[in-house]
Amino acid sequence: MTRTAIVTGGSRGIGAAISVGLKKAGYNVAANYAGNDEAAQKFKAETGIPVFKWSVADYDACVEGLKQVEADLGPIDVLVNNAGITRDAPFHKMTPQQWKEVIDTNLSGVFNMTHPLWNGMRERKFGRVITISSINGQKGQFAQANYSASKAGDLGFTKALAQEGARANITVNAICPGYIATDMVMAVPEKVRESIVAQIPVGRLGEADEIARCVVFLASEEAGFITGSTISANGGQFFV
Ligand SMILES: NC(=O)c1ccc[n+]([C@@H]2O[C@H](COP(=O)([O-])OP(=O)(O)OC[C@H]3O[C@@H](n4cnc5c(N)ncnc54)[C@H](OP(=O)(O)O)[C@@H]3O)[C@@H](O)[C@H]2O)c1
User: Fold this and answer.
1) Of 38, 40, 104, 217, which is most buried by a Cβ count within 10 Å?
2) How does pLDDT run across 162-183, given as a tens digit for each residue?
3) What is the pLDDT of residue 21?
4) Which residue of the set 27, 33, 147, 179 is catalytic?
5) How many Å lie between the centroid of ligand 1 and the Cα of residue 123?
6) Is the dihedral of CA 52, 178, 198, 99 positive or negative?
7) What confidence score (pLDDT) does residue 187 get?
8) Annotation marks residue 27 as catalytic
């Protein structure tokens, strides 16, 4: 049976690698994105994966967007909550807007995407909800009170919902990447990046494909006994 997956923020960075990894593993894949049409159209042309534009921060847009995806591709079995943003600032300079944007996207976005799909997964007695949290949700990070709070919130969400989904054969898991070589990390000044790499025991940034492989595993039938878990993929930088 061909299963259907949706990846939020699935046309760039880690999300693009996840979309491609799932397609290679045999899934029908839809990639959601927020606003970078050029990157999304390029991704679609290169991979053949359809792209759907809406903001995960908007609940009604998620409901409508998911209806469209299910009309085009069929019921969604696998949800990968990958979309995420940073608005870094030391706390004394952090604005309410910076706080809100990050919480709305990284935490409420996970609710907004999972909630409309939940009943369908329950009725069909199968589901996979996989959320991309972060090492900085586990350990906290200077100038990321908003981001660290949102990503720690994703882990609480995962553990709570895993308990609700278990009887319906829905697993709910999280992945905490360390520093991965994507636009988000490459946008950091080179000096700062060098100091980050110096803190990673394996001596390099991670690759987006290394996160995609974790997702493909958690999405599989074979991972059915794993729920409420967090996989840390961080090159040995932080142990929980
Ligand atoms: N890179 C890292 O080292 C790292 C480490 C730990 C965790 N993470 C997490 O991994 C995830 C992916 O990170 P990345 O580095 O691949 O990021 P990225 O390269 O900046 O890409 C982010 C993706 O999310 C989408 N997006 C942002 N806001 C959205 C919204 N409101 N609605 C729908 N889509 C939205 C973007 O869409 P557009 O293309 O339209 O802009 C883009 O496709 C994030 O959750 C991030 O927090 C990353």
Assistant:
1) 40
2) 999 999 999 999 999 999 999 8
3) 98
4) 147
5) 30
6) positive
7) 86
8) no
Q: pLDDT below 70 — which residues of the chain?
A: none
- What is the atom index within ligand 1 of the atom nearest the CA of 136? 6
* Nearest protein Cα to ligand 1, atom 2: 180
Report the DSSP pairing between strands 51-53 and 28-33. Answer: parallel
- All domains in the chain, ordered by first residue: 4-228 (3.40.50.720)
Can you give the pLDDT at residue 183? Answer: 84
Give CA 8 to chain center in angstroms.
7
Rounded to the nearest whole angstrom, what is the distance from the C-alpha of residue 184 to the centroid of ligand 1? 7
Do 7 and 30 touch, CB atoms closer than 8 A? yes
What pTM did the predictor assign? 0.98
Nearest to 200 by CA among 223, 176, 160, 233: 233
Q: What is the pLDDT of residue 164?
A: 98
